Amino acid sequence: MIDFEIPAETAALRDQIRAFVNDKIVPYETDPRLTRHGPTEEMRTEMVELAREAGLLTFQAPARFGGREPSHVDQAVLFEAAGWSTLGPVALNCAAPDEGNMFLLGKIANEQQVEEFLVPVIEGRQRSVFAMTEPDGAGSDPNQLKTEAVFDGSDYVINGRKWLITGANGARTWIIMARVAPNEHGPDGPTLFLCDGDTPGIEIERVMNTMDRNYVEGHGVVVFNDLRLPASAVLGEVGQALRYAQLRLAPARLTHCMRWLGAASRAQAIAIEHARTRTGFGKPLAEHQGVGFMIADNEIALQQCRLAIWWACWTLDSGAKGRHESSMVKAMVSEELFKVADRCVQILGGMGISDETPVAMIFSDMRAFRLYDGPTEVHKYAISRQVLRNPR
Ligand SMILES: Cc1cc2nc3c(=O)[nH]c(=O)nc-3n(C[C@H](O)[C@H](O)[C@H](O)COP(=O)(O)OP(=O)(O)OC[C@H]3O[C@@H](n4cnc5c(N)ncnc54)[C@H](O)[C@@H]3O)c2cc1C
Fold first, then answer.
1. Which Pfam families has this protein been placed in (predicted)?
2. Which of 378, 383, 385 to mutate to test the pocket of ligand 1 (most atoms within 8 A of CB)?
């Protein structure tokens, strides 16, 4: 009944992606243009052009946009291959936040919005942002949303402050979450707006210094200062932002899991090679039981994570929303892969915390994964509420 065989076509594409990332993108990991605030736009464009030449750019896009439209299960296989380098998804245009944004826009944008804001992102010509989190408002609890959109006759005027907005600097496709204030003309409540990043009223206050360095242009603090948008800038329907965010979140959580599984597998490969070749106390490190156990624990965790991701993807492919399933998998995978990366650092000894290998970068980048798209505790809070409401 359950078949774990990977279809030949998917396996072939996986091998192509893996070879591309290994041969063409891994060398960029030591490029000085990989800065504290992520790859520069110049470096991103260069990598994207390589993926375009290889015929692999935005492979996950729907067929109507020239992509290969893989199922969720197929994506699990392909995104893992892309994640072999933390820069692989950036090159292939399947990194966050663009990948989740493309998914959302493909579902709810109208034809005009698709042409203006989605197609250029799919083609790798411009980047996108999803601006929800606020220093004193929306975070784990989006109901605390403070950014306000006031309807003044034909336009909305938006004011508020956001932070941790990935890629804000230089992005052109902006999805902004704001609360439409009660008005006599129509509905109110949390709403998504879609606009160009060059619109007056969007001000990048600064880019935050963070532990991770693989998201293009890092994470920005953004102020909306009387940002005036026409009613046509509403994405979907007024008052439906939280529902749309959920639509984006279930698959986006899983693609994070897939990419980080690829990165953790790379860390494990590097740790294994080190354990086989470095000696201590008269034999290779790998022959010490303490090291062998760490390698085995990693292998067990990697395979558990892979199977769990495939299962949640299968629920999405069968038409379910997968909210509960993706929540369980994201909580488990983010915790387990972080432990894998930590054990890899340990096996490498002092070299593990240096830039002599990419393991230190994988470790520090992966730390944030336990926070975004729902911190572990928030997923556990939701899971326990669901289980308590509907005991088996
Ligand atoms: C690398 C990175 C990139 C990001 N990119 C974006 C982006 O592009 N756009 C965007 O809008 N946001 C982005 N975020 C923000 C991210 O979505 C938030 O950090 C996340 O939702 C948590 O919100 P918060 O940081 O406000 O933490 P808070 O909501 O203040 O929570 C802090 C901690 O409190 C605990 N907690 C909260 N609620 C509960 C609960 N119900 N039960 C138990 N414990 C709880 C958890 O331990 C949690 O970690 C990004 C974050 C990171 C780290």
1. Acyl-CoA_dh_1 (PF00441), Acyl-CoA_dh_M (PF02770), Acyl-CoA_dh_N (PF02771)
2. 378
